[in-house]
Design a protein that fits this description.
CATH topology: Spore Coat Polysaccharide Biosynthesis Protein SpsA, Chain A
Helix content: 40-55%
Order of helices and strands: EHEHEHEHEEHEHHEEHH
Shape: globular
Number of helices: 9
Strand order of the largest sheet: 3-2-1-4-7-5-8
CATH architecture: Alpha-Beta Complex
CATH class: Alpha Beta
Largest sheet: 7 strands, mixed
Number of strands: 9
Strand content: 15-25%
Distance between the termini: 25 Å
Length: about 260
């Protein structure tokens, strides 16, 4: 039987995720056997890239994009988006490989994508939450989201999360070459630009556990980037709105109607 949703791919950046990657791919495949997975590996020293190649050799729906070195999460996602847009995917997901974005929520994204152009996984709406976070991490996350909401005037409760589903037309309309952010503010910038372009945004509740394997990518430089770049986005609002309005295509599953 054909899939009950448009062709979809999950962009999955990796850096030293050799323990998580096979488990995550297996869980996604069990839930959504007709969704493709693109592993974007930044030349992981632990051999994650070779493991990804092995998974791809065994499963035609797994693909691997090798990059020469660690260039940041935002750059990895942009590379994945360009790869996906060069193919015929109508829905393009982004998610982490460390199980902080549990695959069990993917069907909820697909359902919400029937009525929204961009779907955000939210820890901070009813039904969402965090698991095994200490008070410092909760404070930084809540504070960062409130900060972005107030400065940018966006109503969405989880702007810094990286569990998302884009309709193809959204990414086609965004000037990907002009996205300047790389850390967690990258997620804010994507949503901000999509809203300026007039696309509809919806949120689905997710539970966000702390990673159980590997090391967190959070750093002080990422936090500082977010503090500064949110203001840069606000200052650039008029220019971004003009660019977004010029670039936006017509609506439709693949942006072609």
């Amino acid at each position: 039987m054909p899939p009950a949703h448009p062709p979809a791919v999950i962009c999955l950046p990796t850096y030293n995720e050799r323990e998580n990657l096979p488990l995550l791919v297996a869980e996604v495949r069990a839930l959504l056997p007709d969704v493709d997975i693109l592993v974007i590996d930044d030349n992981s020293p632990d051999g994650t890239g070779a493991i990804a190649d092995g998974l791809a050799a065994a499963d035609p729906r797994v693909h691997v994009l090798h990059r020469p070195g660690k260039q940041g999460l935002g750059r990895a996602y942009l590379a994945g988006f360009r790869w996906a847009l060069a193919r015929d995917y109508a829905l393009i997901f982004e998610m982490d490989c460390d199980f902080s974005h549990p695959p069990r929520f993917l069907p909820q994204f697909l359902a919400k994508a029937q009525t929204c152009d961009l779907v955000l996984g939210s820890r901070y709406i009813p039904g969402g939450g965090t698991v095994d976070w200490d008070w410092r991490r909760r404070l930084i996350s809540r504070g960062g989201n409130t900060y972005a909401q107030l400065i940018l005037g966006l109503p969405y409760r989880d702007l810094t999360g990286g569990f998302k589903c884009f309709h193809r037309r959204v990414l086609q309309a965004l000037p990907l070459d002009e996205i300047v952010s790389n850390g967690y503010v990258f997620q804010i910038e994507l949503t901000w630009r999509a809203v300026l372009a007039g696309f509809s945004v919806g949120e689905v509740p997710i539970q966000f556990p702390d990673r159980t394997r590997g090391q967190s990518k959070m750093s002080g430089s990422i936090v500082r980037e977010a503090v500064v770049n949110v203001w840069k986005l606000r200052i650039a609002k008029a220019r971004l709105a003009r660019q977004a309005g010029e670039a936006r295509p017509a609506a439709g599953w693949g942006g072609d109607k």
